[in-house]
Amino acid sequence: MNYTNYIKIDIKKIIELVNKENYDSISQKIRLYNILKELSYLDFVFIANIGFAVYNNSLDKGDLDKILSNNGKRTYMIMFHADYAGSFLYDLVIFINSSKLKSISETTKNKIYSLLSKK
Amino acid sequence: MTDEDQKNLIGIIEYLSNSNTEEAIEFRNKYGWWLDEVGGFIYTFRKLTELKNVINLFPTYIVSDSNSRFIKNVFGSNIEKREILHEPMFIISLYKYYRDEIEGYKNAYLKIYKDNKINLLYVGRKAREKGIHDAISLFEDLVKEGKDVRLIIVAPEFGKGTEEYKRLEEIVNKYGRGEADIYIAMP
Hints:
The complex is a heterodimer. Chain A is mostly helical. In chain A, helix 7 (84-97) packs across helix 8 (106-118). Helix content of chain A is 59%, strand content 8%. Chain B folds into two domains: 3-87, no CATH class; 110-184, 3-Layer(aba) Sandwich (Rossmann fold). Chain B has helices spanning 3-18, 22-50, 61-75, 87-97, 99-112, 132-144, 163-175, and strands at 54-58, 81-84, 118-123, 149-155, 179-184. In chain B, helix 6 (132-144) packs parallel to helix 7 (163-175). The radius of gyration of chain B is 21 Å and the shape is globular. Strand 2 (75-79) of chain A pairs parallel with strand 1 (54-58) of chain B, so a sheet runs across the interface.
C-alpha cells in the first residue's frame, strides 16, 4: 500500500486497497500448509476458540494433531467460550422441536426434556 | 448440569450416534453434521487432556466448572491448568471500546419502546452462565415492588414449552403486571 495515501488521509483509496489486499490475494499467500509449517517452529500458541478445529472445514484430525502436537516445550493457551454440555443439550432440544424428526420416540424426548428441566 | 445429567447426555448422544433403531438412524440422516461437530469437540477435548503444557482459559467460573467436569465425565481424566477470566470485567472493557455502538442499539430500542416503562434487555442464549435466571429474578423483584417493567429477551430457543417462558408467565399472572417481549433469534 502506498504510504502517501495515509499522509493524504484518502480513506476511500485506503479501504479499496485493503479490500484488494485481503480478499483478492490472501489465499495465494497464506495456506493451511504454511500455518502448520510455521507452527512447528513456535514455542507459544494461543488459540482463541476451542471450536477452531470443528468449525473450520479445511482442518481434519491429522491437521489438529499437528497443531496440538506436543514437542515437550511448546506452551498452548486455549479459550473455551461456552458450556459445551449445555450447548449440546440445547441443540438436541432444538432438533426434537424442529418437526424434522418423524421417528423420534417419546422416551428419547422425555430424557432430553428431563435434562433441560433440571438445567 | 450435574455429573449424572452430563453422563445421561453423553449416553443420549452415543445412542443417537451408534444405535440401529429407526429414530437413531433418522437422526443421523438429518443431523449427522451435528454429530460430526460434537465428535470434533470430543476429539479436541481428548487431545487437551493429553497435553501437559496447556493453559485453558474460561470466561467465568461456571463455564470452567461445567466444561472440566464434562471432559472428566467423558474421558475419566481432565485438563490440568485452568484460568478464569471473569467475564464481567471483559464486558466493562467492551463498553469502554464500543460505547458509541451500544448507545446506537439502545436508541434503536428506545424508538420501538417509547413509553416510560423500565426496560430490561437480555440478549443471548437462555443459559444459566449467561445470566438468564438473574434477569428473570430481577424482573420479578421489580414487578413485586410495583414497578412498571418490561423484560425484552432476544434469544434462540425460547419457546412456550421452556421452563423460563413458563416462569415469566407465572410472574405476570401472579402479580397482574409486568411485560415480557420475546424475540426468537437464530443462534
